[in-house]
Amino acid sequence: MLKILGRTSSLNVRKVLWTLDELGLAYEREDWGMGFASTKSPEFLALNPNGLVPVLIDEQGALYESNTICRYLAARYGHGHLLPVEPRPRAVVEQWMDWQATDLNPTWGYAFLALGRPTPGYDDRDKIAASVEAWNRAMAILDQRLAQTGAHVAGHDFTLADIVLGVSVHRWMATPMERANLPAVAAYYARLKERPEFGRWALDEVP
């Protein structure tokens, strides 16, 4: 049995749960972090020394880093579904997964903690404005890509890139701020909403 450690309010946990559901895999989940079991406990740090969720546990041990977990699940159980087997198509999927983690995510941290999940200490107007501007600028890159494909991030087929970017697109759409007019992203968001798994794990109504 696969086990996931992490709370459902975490965007990174939601990526993994969405991937599990797309692959039709059974799993157990335990709440850890932010009001639940402490991720700074020796027990948890033995599984992930970074003290962050999610962590996947299977018969081979613990695995952390959400995008890596998603890749592992798709590679092991997907048989080409969600993550292509051929090197070049797979690299395109992984390119956009890495872009989400290293280029998109760093832009929105301050704005989201100020506006989307109000947090003490995140009230500097200049920093909020800079974060919103950077976030919109990064999302414009995604908009250009989606305008090219007319479908999904890596091309015609739905892949892991759409899972990791889908939760990020929802966060951008749901945060109360001034958003750039990005028609391809808006159309993509509407298409994602047609997937039951997106409704379950990317939208706000997460249990």
TrEMBL record:
Entry-linked Pfam families: GST_C_2, GST_N_3
GST C-terminal domain location: 86-207
Keyword Cell inner membrane: no
Keywords assigned by UniProt, alphabetized: Transferase
EC number: 2.5.1.18
InterPro entries found in the cross-reference section: Glutathione-S-Trfase_C-like, Glutathione-S-Trfase_C_sf, Glutathione_S-Trfase, Glutathione_S-Trfase_N, Thioredoxin-like_sf
GO MF assignments: glutathione transferase activity
Top EC category: transferase
GST N-terminal domain sequence ranges: 1-81
Descriptive protein name: Glutathione S-transferase
Organism (species): Caulobacter rhizosphaerae
